[in-house]
Write the structure tokens for this entry.
Amino acid sequence: MDASYSEVAKMIDHSLLNPTLTCQDLEDGCVLAREYDVASVCIMPYALRRCAELLDGSTVAPSTTIGFPQGGHATQVKRAEAIQAIDDGGQELDMVVNISKALSGDWAYVREDIHAVLLVTREAGQKLKVIFENCYLSDDQKIKLCEICGELGVDWVKTSTGYGSGGATHEDLKLMREHSPETVQVKAAGGIRTLDALLQVRELGVTRVGASRTKDILDEAKTRLA
């Protein structure tokens, strides 16, 4: 599949979620993301307002996480996080499902948990990605989550936080694409470190990837896809 530099760059959510990043690291990451014109910056929640300021006037969306990384926050806490994120300028939110409830088969709870954050996001005219953390789930559980997200109409289903025991696999990406409606996109996160890896998941129907090695990927893209 042919791809231009811009198409590749606009697949990348530049990840600034490592807890050891300093305030200067976060600012530098936002500047880099703007320079390379990626899709979004996904930053630690406390830094989102500053991220939105640094990205103002660009085509790069400020984004952050909800219930990250374990998903076990109470629904009202996730909702409050979403409200704060929107108020801070967030345009895309990446929420973690309640993994414990998914493993327990309490699908009504899982659905309502997602729905509560989706309502806040939609009321603000913004977008929601739902993180499954596939490394802990069976295929049947992943399929059920795809079905719930499809029924609710979220914007993306996402493989991983990048902080679990495993990241995005081709098998999971194929499964998620197969069991999600066309209106729901698929995001790969965890392990996408090279241009070739990004292009491979693009072939599987992935439209976004979470990446911390954005500069390396896009420097190579400038050379190969110019």
User: Anything to note?
Assistant: The beta strands are 12-16, 40-43, 61-66, 92-96, 127-131, 156-158, 185-189, 208-211.
